[in-house]
Amino acid sequence: MRLQLMTWPAVESYLRSRRDIIVPIGSTEQHGPTGLIGTDALTAEAVAWRLGERVGAIVGPTLGIGMAHHHLAFTGTVALRPSTLMALIQDVVASLRLHGFEHILFINGHGGNVATANTAFQEINARASFGEGAPARCQLVNWWDGQRVATLCKELYGVADGSHATASEVSVTWALHPELERKGDLSPEIAPKGHSWTDAKDYRAAYADGRIGSNPNLSSAEHGLRLLEAATADMAERHAAFVGLKG
């Protein structure tokens, strides 16, 4: 069930029997010369929608712009400051808590969101501790953080999956949009990795085409379908454990 395709009475009816909701969160940023700019939002959304269908949960609207300032030297990236993303997450959670949702599971597609989102959750609960609002049980999980996906990525790509513009996430976007599948002239085939960075110019100086440690020419739509199935199964286990938490 997608919140945006429901009526308010339908949501009220849902809340009479359960109090959990899934929220996809991603980013709008470069993903190398062959990856889609919307990769992180598209992948998180696809996994969240499939998870919602599997567990019968409402899926909220996708938060599609993330903490990605370090990609702004690449054309097309749209980013939020950490403080802006924190405010967005806090307002979304406050809205959901107001209506009675108690377990809010964020399915994440962008590693850069993790620290900011977890800080936002701490701010919400710190205010509650000081008597300034209600606490919220929130959790953020990366869609690829499960044993099935990890095993499949190792089988399909080995070390060439990388950590940005990964072969696995590119495969998922091609499964969703097979008409956009493309290979590129990548040099080197496996991108460099291991460099630290500060701002956007520093990132681009370290990673000229945007990739980190990956070879997305190994990607395919068929791989993406397998990864979506694996991710949905992994996230169903995470969801069950999360909604089983008390308090």
Verbal overview:
There is one protein chain. This protein has a single domain, classed as 3-Layer(aba) Sandwich (Rossmann fold). Helix content is 45%, strand content 8%. It has a four-stranded parallel sheet, with helices on both faces. Helix 4 links the parallel strand 3 and strand 4. It starts with 7 loop residues before the first helix and ends with a helix.
Q: What's a quick, concise take on this entry?
A:
This protein is of the alpha/beta class. It has a single domain (3-243), classed as Creatininase (Rossmann fold), CATH 3.40.50. Helices cover 45% and strands 8% of the residues.
So what's the overall shape? globular
**What is the count of β-strands?**
4
In total, the number of domains comes to 1
- Order of helical and strand elements: HEHEHEHEHHHH
Widest sheet, order of strands: 2-1-3-4
CATH topology: Rossmann fold
Low-pLDDT sequence parts: none
CATH architecture: 3-Layer(aba) Sandwich
What is the tally of helical segments?
8
For the biggest sheet, the summary is: 4 strands, parallel
Overall average pLDDT: 97
Which CATH C-level class is it?
Answer: Alpha Beta
The CATH superfamily is identified as Creatininase
Strand content: 5-15%
Structural class: alpha/beta
**Helicity range of the residues?**
40-55%
- Rounded to the nearest angstrom, the radius of gyration is 18 Å
